[in-house]
Automatic annotation (TrEMBL):
Stretches that traverse the bilayer: 6-23, 62-82, 88-105
UniProt entry keywords in alphabetical sequence: Membrane, Transmembrane, Transmembrane helix
Protein name stated in the entry: SdpI/YhfL protein family protein
Domain of life: Bacteria
Amino acid sequence: MDSFSNIFDILIVFGGVIIIYYAEQMKANDIIKVGIMVPPSVNVKKMKDREGFKTYAFPRHFLQGLILIVLGLVGIGCDLYARPDLHAIVYIIVLAFYIIGNLFIEKGKKKFY
């Protein structure tokens, strides 16, 4: 069991929790976190369609956070059961889909600002 890998997996889970937290804040309290939900260059006060953005972004960011939580937990599980081969395969597959999905999400969000 590699402690560095476990720390990295815990940080991945924490990142997923943060994304879900800010997605919920966006939906419930109309707080759009700059730097997490939108790039720092975007002025959230001057968005073209704020409600449309929230409707579009919430389920996608919630799913992103959930994927990160599952990825981190799978990584911790693979470390506990000494399966580095499975750990690497899962990371490569999930992160590839995560990055491709994130590119599509960012492209779709641009029509709202």
